[in-house]
C-alpha cells in the first residue's frame, strides 16, 4: 500500500518579495509554489542579492561532483552555523577544508564502523529500556527519544561517554532554540536586514551546547599531555592520533572543539529527524510493517543483532532510504558561483548563492514516479533504480559528500530493526505532523505514534 504523507501544500504561484519574507520566517518550505516541484532552475530576486535554485541533475552533478572548486560553500551557511560549529569542516573551503577532510577521513574509515558497532548496540539497548516504560499503546511523541538515542550514540562512539539524561535534555532544548534563531538570522541576512537579535540568541544556545562538549575534550587532551595511556577506540581518539599526510600536523585543541561540535550536530540532528519520519511512515503502513518484521525475524530471529545483519535487512534499508527521500534532513545546500556564468537561461553573477535542494529534487515530478507517495518498493523497480542514480542525494555527492553516511545508515537500520522487533508501531490518526524546513526538516508539532509490546499485542 502506498500513500501520500503530509507536506506543506505549495502556493499556486510564486509569492511576492514581502510574502516570501513573511512565509520564510517560519519555514523555508512555506515559500515553495506549485512550479517549484516542476522547474529545473529557479531565480529569487532579493534586494542586492540574486538567489538561484538548481534542480537539474546534470547541473547538480557539475556543481557538486565535476567542478566543486568552482562552486565552494557559500558564506551564508557559514555565518548561520558559525556560533555553533566555528571553523569546522562543514562550512570551510579550499586548503583549510582539504586538510580537515584528510584528517577526518582517517577517523571515518570503513573498519571503524565495525569497531563502533557494540557502542551503538549499547545505546540502542538503553533506548529499548526507556521505550518499555512508555510502550502502552498511548500516543507518544518520538522526536525526543530519537534525538536522545542518536545523541547518545554520537557521545559513545565519538567520546566514549554516556550521555546523561539531564545533559541530553539541555542539549536537545538548546538545539531546537538554536534552529529557530539561526533560521531567522539567515532570512534576515538574505534580505540584508540587521540580524544581530536572532544572532545573539543563537550564540547563547550554541554556547550552552559547546560548553558540554569542550569540557570532555579538554579532559582527554590534559590526560594525553600527562602521558596517560588511553585504550578507548572512539572517534575522538582517532582524530587526536590522525596526522595530516601532506602537512604532517594534527588538529589543535581549538580546532578539535569545532570539529567535535560539528560531528555532534551533523551526526545526531540529521539522524534523529530521519528516524522520527521513518517511524511515522511505518506507522501509517501496517502491511509494510508486517513485511519488515518478517524480514527482521528471518535475518536475526530473537538473538542480538550482529554487524553482518545490517546489510541483510534490505527492506529496512529501502524504508529508511524512502524516508530520506521524502524528508531529507538537509533540505538544501548553499554553494557560491565563483565566476559569472550562464546556467541554463540565467545569467548568474559571481558571488551569487546557488541552492541545491534534495527536498525539491526528491519530489520533482519529472525525476520520480508518484513523487510525493511513500513507497519503499520503488527502489526495486527499473524506474526507481534510475531515479536513485540520477536524482537522489540526501547525503549530497562529490568530494563533500557526508562523511558519516555509512555510519548514519548502520545506526538507522539498527534502531529501526530493534524497535520493530520489539513493538508494534501504530499510527496516531488524530495527529498530523506539520513539516517545517529550518536547519533540518522537522515536524513543528512533533511526530506521534503508538507503541505496543509485540509479545502482548493481539
Ligand atoms: C541521516 C543522517 C545524515 C544526513 C542526511 C546527512 C547529510 C549530510 C549532507 C547533505 C551533507 C553535505 C552538506 C553540504 O554539502 O552542504 C553532510 C555533510 C557532512 N556530514 Fe552528514 N548527514 C547525516 C549524518 C551524519 C553523521 C552520523 C555524521 C558523523 C558522525 C555526519 C558528518 C558529516 C560531515 C563531517 C559533513 C561535512 C563533510 C565535508 O564538507 O567534507 N553526517 N551530511
Describe, in plain words, how this protein is organized in 3D:
The chain has 458 residues and is an alpha+beta fold. The protein has one domain (17-449): Cytochrome p450 (Orthogonal Bundle), CATH 1.10.630.10. Helix content is 52%, strand content 10%. It has 15 helices and eleven strands. The strands form four sheets. Strands 1-2-7-4 form a four-stranded mixed beta sheet. Strand 9 (435-437) and strand 10 (441-443) form a beta hairpin. Helix 5 (110-132) packs across helix 6. The model has no long low-confidence stretch (mean pLDDT 90). It binds protoporphyrin IX containing FE.
Structure summary:
This protein has 458 residues and is α+β, with helices and mostly antiparallel strands. It is 52% helix and 10% strand.
Structural class: alpha+beta
Give the C-level CATH assignment.
Mainly Alpha
Number of domains: 1
Note the beta-strand portion: 5-15%
Low-confidence stretches: none
Please compute the radius of gyration using only Cα atoms: 22 Å
State the helicity in percent bands: 40-55%
Please trace the helix and strand order, writing H or E for each element.
Answer: HEEHHHHEHHHHHHHEEEEHHHEEEE
| Number of continuous helical runs | 15
Small-molecule binders: protoporphyrin IX containing FE
CATH topology, by name, is: Cytochrome p450
- Shape call: globular
Kindly state the number of beta strands: 11
Largest β sheet strand count, sense and barrel closure: 4 strands, mixed
Query: How is the largest sheet built, in terms of strand order?
Result: 1-2-7-4
Amino acid at each position: 500500500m502506498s500513500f501520500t504523507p503530509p507536506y506543506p501544500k505549495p502556493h499556486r504561484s510564486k509569492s511576492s518579495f514581502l510574502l516570501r519574507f513573511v512565509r520564510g520566517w517560519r519555514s523555508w518550505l512555506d515559500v515553495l509554489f506549485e512550479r517549484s516541484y516542476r522547474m529545473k532552475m529557479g531565480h529569487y530576486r532579493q534586494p542586492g542579492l540574486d538567489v538561484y535554485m538548481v534542480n537539474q541533475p546534470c547541473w547538480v552533478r557539475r556543481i557538486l561532483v565535476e567542478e566543486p572548486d568552482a562552486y565552494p560553500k557559500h558564506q551564508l551557511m557559514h555565518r548561520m552555523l558559525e556560533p555553533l560549529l566555528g571553523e569546522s569542516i562543514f562550512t570551510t573551503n579550499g586548503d583549510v577544508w582539504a586538510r580537515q577532510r584528510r584528517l577526518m577521513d582517517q577517523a571515518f574509515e570503513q573498519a571503524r564502523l565495525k569497531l563502533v558497532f557494540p557502542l551503538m548496540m549499547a545505546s540502542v539497548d538503553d533506548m529499548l529500556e526507556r521505550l518499555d516504560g512508555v510502550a502502552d499503546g498511548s500516543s507518544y511523541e518520538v522526536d525526543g527519544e530519537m534525538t536522545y538515542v542518536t545523541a547518545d550514540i554520537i557521545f559513545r562512539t565519538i567520546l566514549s561517554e554516556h550521555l546523561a539524561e539531564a545533559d541530553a535534555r539541555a542539549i536537545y532544548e538548546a538545539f531546537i532554540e538554536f534552529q529557530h534563531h539561526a533560521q531567522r538570522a539567515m532570512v534576515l541576512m538574505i534580505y540584508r536586514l540587521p540580524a544581530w537579535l536572532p544572532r545573539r540568541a543563537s550564540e547563547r544556545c550554541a554556547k550552552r551546547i559547546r560548553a558540554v562538549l569542550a569540557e570532555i575534550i579538554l579532559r582527554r587532551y590534559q590526560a594525553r599531555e600527562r602521558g596517560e595511556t588511553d585504550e578507548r577506540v572512539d572517534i575522538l581518539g582517532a582524530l587526536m592520533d590522525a596526522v595530516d599526510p601532506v602537512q604532517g600536523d594534527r588538529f589543535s585543541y581549538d580546532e578539535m572543539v569545532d570539529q567535535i561540535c560539528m560531528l555532534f550536530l551533523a551526526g545526531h540532528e540529521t539522524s534523529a529527524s530521519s528516524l522520527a519520519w521513518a517511524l511515522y511512515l511505518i506507522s501509517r503502513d501496517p502491511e509494510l510493517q508486517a513485511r519488515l518484521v518478517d524480514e527482521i525475524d528471518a535475518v536475526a530471529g530473537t538473538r542480538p543483532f550482529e554487524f553482518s545483519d545490517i546489510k541483510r535487512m534490505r527492506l529496512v534499508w529501502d524504508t529508511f532510504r524512502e524516508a530520506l527521500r521524502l524528508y531529507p534532513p538537509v533540505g538544501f545546500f548553499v554553494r557560491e558561483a565563483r565566476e559569472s556564468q550562464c546556467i541554463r537561461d540565467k545569467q548568474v553573477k559571481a558571488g551569487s548563492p546557488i541552492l541545491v535542494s534534495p527536498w525539491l529534487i526528491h519530489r520533482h515530478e519529472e525525476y520520480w514516479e508518484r513523487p510525493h507517495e511513500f513507497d519503499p518498493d520503488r527502489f526495486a523497480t527499473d524506474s526507481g533504480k534510475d531515479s536513485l542514480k540520477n536524482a537522489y542525494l540526501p547525503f549530497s555527492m562529490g568530494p563533500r559528500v557526508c562523511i558519516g553516511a555509512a555510519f548514519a545508515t548502520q545506526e538507522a537500520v539498527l534502531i529501526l530493526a530493534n524497535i520493530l522487533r520489539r513493538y508494534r508501531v501504530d499510527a496516531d490518526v488524530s495527529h498530523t505532523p506539520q513539516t517545517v524546513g529550518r536547519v533540518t526538516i522537522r515536524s513543528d508539532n512533533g511526530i506521534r505514534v503508538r507503541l505496543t509490546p509485540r509479545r502482548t499485542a493481539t
